[in-house]
TrEMBL record:
Residues 128-162 form a coiled coil. This is BZIP domain-containing protein. Signal peptide: none annotated. Keywords: Coiled coil, DNA-binding, Nucleus, Repressor, Transcription, Transcription regulation. Gene3D superfamilies: 1.20.5.170. InterPro entries: bZIP, bZIP_Maf, TF_DNA-bd_sf, Transcription_factor_Maf_fam. PANTHER family: MAF-S, ISOFORM B (PTHR10129:SF48), TRANSCRIPTION FACTOR MAF (PTHR10129). Belongs to the bZIP family. Maf subfamily. Residues 8-18 have a biased composition (Basic and acidic residues). GO terms for molecular function: DNA-binding transcription factor activity, RNA polymerase II-specific; RNA polymerase II cis-regulatory region sequence-specific DNA binding. It comes from the Eukaryota. One of its GO terms (cellular component) is nucleus. SMART domains: BRLZ.
Length: 185
């Protein structure tokens, strides 16, 4: 059985290059002729092993989803929720070309990624709301404790003042005091 090898145009930017905004040409000019393992993995997962996709003009690639939708009637939701095995069966049975099948799989991956991103955003917003609620509760608790602390400080100052007044009265009138009460604060 012959092994399939990945052939990629050297000038074509990879999916990672498009996302990061860097160009592979820059790396090639610096003497780096091999693609990174991440590039290889992305190309394998996204089906870039099909040479026809690289040779197709850009206009055809953009019109491809319309051509696909006329051959197979499947909503985006069905595409996302379909198992891989069932999707492969339906795509093979629909008579789509290899490049159209790759495009459908890319569409499915894009839709799934959008779903994951939306889920992550929602989760992050929920966590933010929860943390803001907890923060508000903590701020209220801190304010309450500060007020309680001020009230206790006032109470302590009041008791200290009364104690000093009593000690002074006892000394002036010669009232005998125990040893431990003779000290001032």
């Amino acid at each position: 059985m012959k092994k399939r090898t990945l052939r990629v145009k050297k000038d074509a930017p990879s999916r990672v290059d498009k996302v990061t905004g860097t160009s592979r040409r820059r790396g090639l000019a610096a003497g780096n002729t091999r693609s990174s393992p991440l590039d290889y993995f992305c190309k394998m997962m996204m089906g870039y092993c099909d040479q026809q996709m690289h040779s197709a003009p850009p206009e055809m690639l953009e019109d491809l989803p319309l051509a696909i939708s006329s051959k197979i009637s499947m909503s985006d939701e069905e595409l996302v929720h379909l198992s891989v095995r069932d999707l492969n069966r339906q795509l093979k049975a629909s008579g789509l070309t290899r490049s159209e099948i790759v495009k459908m799989k890319q569409r499915r991956r894009t839709l799934k990624n959008r779903g994951y991103a939306a889920s992550c955003r929602n989760k992050r917003l929920e966590q933010k709301d929860d943390l803001e609620g907890e923060r508000a509760i903590v701020i209220q608790e801190i304010s309450r404790l500060q007020e309680e602390n001020k009230a206790l400080e006032g109470e302590v100052d009041d008791l200290r003042s009364k104690y000093s007044t009593l000690l002074e009265y006892a000394r002036k009138n010669g009232v005998p005091l125990p040893e431990d009460l003779n000290t001032n604060f």
